[in-house]
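Just curious. Protein, please.
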Amino acid sequence: MSSIDQKSQYENIHDDYEAHYYDPTSMEYRERFIYDLMFEGLDLNGKRVAELASGSGHNSLALRKRYPQVQLTGFDISAKACASYRELLNTEAIEVDLTKPIKNMPTFDCILIFGGLHHCVSDLDTTFSNIADMLVPGGMLLFFEPNSEYILEGARKIWYKHDRYFEENSEAALNHSEMLALTNGCFKVCNITYMGGIAFYLIYNSLIFRIPVGMKKYMAPPLFALERLMSYLPGKFLYSSFVGQWIKS
């Protein structure tokens, strides 16, 4: 799938995606089960932070609430998303394709990419080269991505193939070890946590399961409790996703 087609696909589903992935219940899931892992041990106040594949900026907005003095810039392949980011955050957003070489970009203390790397599988080598160039030495890369070593990965591939909200040729779950190898030693792992159970699917991915947004607030309490219990299980094969903190060498 070309970058133009990928951009068109995102803009076609933009409104549905916004409604399901950024409603209050989905944002509560992010706060409890993703952000707390992603930002653990960090103080980003006063830091220059880029959100790549930023969409409309809801993750950046949540980051600003945690760190009011953070300095944010958004980057996305979609002009529509960049316009929404500027409106929501009142700061710069730059239209860019991460799978193509990027030159003359500013550098940042931290880069956040929330579910964006698995949309760059057409050229992850170039994507990681761009990310490394945009980070200062010692800068942090924070990410959340689907786990290809998940026990139900075969079912997920079928899901990607048949659901109109996915493009099987432009996105795929990722293997953390393989991702790290692609960076050619540019990054070291600070932390990697595997996560994602039933609430990940029925709350966070309500769009895919066609669950009405209004139902999610009633479903969330028991599902969040189950999600928390599941997080104590060892290993990586039972979890749909992973959250990582890397540091640039």
Observations:
- The first strand starts at residue 48 and ends at 52.
- The chain has one domain: 3-248.
- Strands lie at 48-52, 71-76, 93-95, 108-114, 135-146, 187-195, 241-248.
- The longest helix spans residues 3-21.
